Amino acid sequence: MIRIALVDDHSLFRNGLRMLLAAHANFEVIADVGSGQEFLDILTDKSPDVVFMDYSMPEMNGAETTRQALAKMPELKVITLSMFGDNAYYSDMVESGAKGFLLKDSPFNEVVEAVETVYEGGTYFSESLLKSFSESLRRAPAYIGESVHSEIAEADRLSEREEEILVAICRGLSTQEIADALYISKRTVDKHRANILEKSGCKNTASLVVYAIKHGIVEI
User: Fold this and answer.
1) CB-hemisphere CA count at 13 Å for 110?
2) What is the DSSP string of 53-112?
3) CB 3.0 to 4.6 Å from 77: which of 17, 55, 118, 183, for a disulfide?
4) How many CB atoms lie within 10 A of CB 85?
């Protein structure tokens, strides 16, 4: 059983999500609270595996709650809940250590997938969020071919071309589109992508997006 906690100041939403999660055979909802401080107060006693964390809460927001919770329990997996269009919050939650990112109106099958993915050590972005994020990057001033100054440690630093390709991946471009934009072959793009995955330790596009945000390669 995966032990789950809910942290959201809207009781109606919280109760609805609790009912859905409790009906799943592999989930056990062991706590639901309306504030970050309440969650921190019960964290040690309840010891959840996964927590759904609202960002916009009074007194202590989701990012600060996440930081303090992970300081107490580093193995905790945090899934951020937000409304559509709250893009400004994601960088803060990534920096705080969140591993999953869902919209509050996500279908339940995505909720289940997010729980299982982060529980097993992965990173999850809902499909609608990835699409929205890539569209916002497409409209941003930065463009392929621009030099990027990231905050990655020297030993793991991506080359300039790798950073260009990572930005393009985050923008939602296909391998062919990246190859055409950079005047290189698809095989070369695939080779760079493999190097990026190896250096970053990422396994999928969602993980790469989080990595790129965390290290200052892209901004939402």
Assistant:
1) 18
2) EES--SSS-HHHHHHHHHHH-TT-EEEEEE-TT-THHHHHHHHHT--EEEETT--HHHHH
3) 118
4) 9
When comparing pLDDT for 205 and 73, which is higher? 73
Tens-place pLDDT, residues 176-220: 989 998 899 999 999 999 999 998 888 777 778 888 887 778 766
Do residues 7 and 39 make contact, with C-beta atoms less than 8 angstroms apart?
yes
CA atoms within 13 A on the CB side of 120: 9
Supply 190's token pair: 């695939």
- According to DSSP, the β-strands at 124-125 and 77-82 are unpaired
State pLDDT tens for residues 78-115.
Answer: 999 887 556 667 778 888 999 998 988 889 999 999 99
Residue with the larger pLDDT of the pair 16 and 132: 16
What is the Cα–Cα distance from 184 to 202, expressed in whole angstroms? Answer: 23
